[in-house]
Specification:
By secondary structure, the chain is mainly α. Helix content is 68%, strand content 2%. A two-stranded antiparallel ribbon has the order 1-2. PPR repeats lie at residues 167-201, 202-236.
């Protein structure tokens, strides 16, 4: 009441004086001026409120710190060899909800998922309110994802015994779990059971089945599952179509894959980067250049990161189709995505080397020098093979003589170039002697050159003779513990002599 009175007394209509310039008199104007004051006469000082908030904040920080330390100590105990979470829970008397789920995550990530159900059973029995749909749903989902479908089923049966109502997510976990384990009869049984309990499957229900059919290469069943999905009035979503394309692409079923792809285009559905990558790899595997390039263009507008193996497959398609300039474009594309790595420089060098462009190779070498790239035997052999094909014995000899400047040790391809260079009038006896003297020829035979290089230039005469000579040996002789370059050179010389004499 006092506060209300105070408010009334402080909200007044005041008379203000206004000066009239014509009469030099003051005119009285009834202009209300409201002065508003706090409803409460006594309010806490600002510094007191600030201090109180600061104390609360510090208290929360301290509590959070101690909670973090307790959790850290718990996980450290779990991480010890021979730790038993059941015994730990018994010793601790109980765990909070956060600690319990942290333990479950730990068991899952440390490949101890088979202990999860026992820990859950013990933890929920400590406090009966923990026996609820949410906890069971989460545990069953984890067990299903970990492939422990029998444990998931056991938890499901217990859930029904306790008169808890399993949700659609619980049934999805069972269906997907059985399907992932290849138990499709059980998966379909629970799918059909949904109708009996008035639960309608959603796209996610079918998506897990489709993915499992793909895993087990059951592509006809995958198509039937899609039809069943549509007949049941459940529309396939973008996840469904992405899954279908990925599985069909991996199987190499291009006609089916393209049909699904066209459906996504008509429905203006987005394709995941993994889907585009799968399509790209499928076309690369079959060497279909035009379609491969079409999808490659689409990946440029996505966040797809192409793995090195896929880059090499694409490059191989270009090489086999003599599209050497495309290697350079592929190198620049890769450079923008993943930076200037060895694969990028390999593609740029290889493109110009295959086109026998001295100017192009020199330009790439200058770029590599500016970028302070460490040379490797692949880079060296690309240039050597180009010089060999160009019959440029002078540049070939200079590069062979300066290998040590690049801190690069020759491999079997480099040795092959040296011997094949005799056919263009190059005399490499001096270099061969240097390699013998420095111990290079007594090293074990290695092939460190990227396979793309041999795909582009082919195997030279020396490498072919090595393979023929090795194949001519008895099985026991092939099992020689150590093959050095000297051994291989002697083997080829002996084989050549036997062929000539024969």
């Amino acid at each position: 009441m006092d506060n209300i009175c105070a408010l009334q007394s402080n909200c007044r209509t005041l008379k203000t004086w206004k000066c009239n310039s014509n009469s030099n008199k003051f005119l009285l104007s009834n202009i209300p001026i409201i002065k508003t004051f706090s409803c409460f006469r006594r309010s806490a000082p600002l510094h007191a409120i600030s201090q109180d908030n600061s104390i609360k904040h510090n208290t929360l920080l301290v509590e959070s710190y101690h909670e973090h330390q307790r959790l850290k100590a718990l996980l450290a105990r779990l991480n010890k060899k021979g730790s038993c979470p059941l015994q730990m829970l018994q010793d601790d008397a109980d765990w909070s909800k956060d600690h319990f789920w942290a333990v479950i995550r730990f068991l899952r990530h440390s490949s101890r998922s088979d202990e999860i159900l026992q820990v859950f059973d013990m933890w929920k029995d400590i406090e009966k309110s923990r026996i609820n749909e949410f906890n069971y749903e989460k545990v069953i989902e984890i067990l299903g994802e970990e492939g422990l479908i029998e444990d998931a089923y056991s938890a499901f049966i217990e859930m029904k015994t306790l008169c808890l109502s399993p949700s659609l997510q619980v049934y999805n976990s069972l269906i997907h779990g059985y399907a992932r384990n290849g138990k499709f009869d059980d998966a379909v049984f629970y799918l059909n059971h949904l109708k009996e309990i008035n639960l309608s499957p959603v796209s996610d229900t079918y998506n897990g089945l489709i993915q499992a059919y793909g895993k087990y290469k059951m592509y006809d069943e995958m198509g039937m599952c899609l039809k069943k999905m549509e007949m049941e009035g459940c529309s396939p979503d973008h996840v469904t179509y992405n899954l279908l394309i990925q599985e069909l692409a991996e199987a190499g079923l291009l006609t089916r894959m393209e049909k699904v792809y066209q459906t996504t285009r008509m429905n203006r559905m987005d394709l995941k980067s993994t889907t585009l990558t799968a399509m790209l790899e499928a076309y690369a595997n079959f060497g279909i250049v035009e379609k491969m390039e079409l999808i490659l263009k689409r990946t440029r507008n996505s966040k797809a990161l192409l793995k090195e193996d896929l880059i090499k497959k694409i490059a191989l398609v270009y090489i086999e189709n003599f599209m050497f300039s495309r290697l350079e474009k592929l190198g620049h594309y890769l450079s923008k995505r993943s930076g200037q790595n060895d694969m990028v420089w390999c593609l740029l060098l290889l493109s110009n080397a295959c086109m026998l462009s001295q100017k192009g190779m020199d330009s790439v070498v200058r770029e590599m020098k500016v970028a302070k790239v460490s040379w490797n035997v692949t880079f060296i052999n690309i240039i050597l093979l180009a010089y060999l094909k160009m019959k440029d014995s002078m540049r070939l000899g200079i590069l062979l003589s300066t290998l040590t400047n690049h801190i690069v040790k020759p491999d079997i391809v480099t040795v092959g170039v040296l011997f094949d260079a005799n056919n263009i009038g190059f005399h490499g006896n001096g270099i061969l002697e240097t390699w013998r003297r420095t111990g290079i020829l007594y090293r074990c035979v290695e092939t460190e050159t990227d396979p793309l290089v041999l795909a582009a230039f082919g195997k030279g005469q020396f490498l072919k003779k090595c393979e023929e000579a090795y194949s001519s040996l008895e099985p026991v002789a092939r099992q020689k513990e150590k093959w050095t370059y000297c051994n291989l050179i002697d083997l080829v010389a002996t084989y050549d002599g036997s062929v000539v004499n024969g």
